[in-house]
Amino acid sequence: xxxxxxxxCGLIPKGAQNxxxxxxxxxxxxxxxxDNEYLKTGLGRRVPAMPSIVKGDPWWLDPxxxxxxxxxxxxxxxxxxxxxxxxxxxYAQVQNEHVWQTAWAEIMKDGVAPQxxxxxxxxxxxxxFAKYPITEG
Length: 137
Hints:
55% of the residues lie in helices and 4% in strands. The protein has helices at residues 19-29, 32-41, 51-56, 66-77, 89-96, 99-110, 114-130, and strands at 3-5, 80-82.
């Protein structure tokens, strides 16, 4: 069964004080060896985006943990399909504008109340979806 191909991303907020340091950290984090060790500390809850990491480290396919082998094989080495928003232009725009991440940053950085930040994010999502009406046909 195909798995949804998913990924995570780093976020450097607009107006961050140490953009160069943040970029250096992200460059460090995406190195295959570093990424591999980082993901292994999560006990395989996420798999690397690079099949070469899995193929180069027997830990990912160690038969002593059949759950990790199955998860890694299904999500990285088996067939995948894109995340659902590639089929929905409205939600693709929501993702590209980082609506949810912006809300999280407002809470953490600016001290905005979670309820207020959520309401603002949902309002923006509604505005975006209004531009892409779903018609029956």
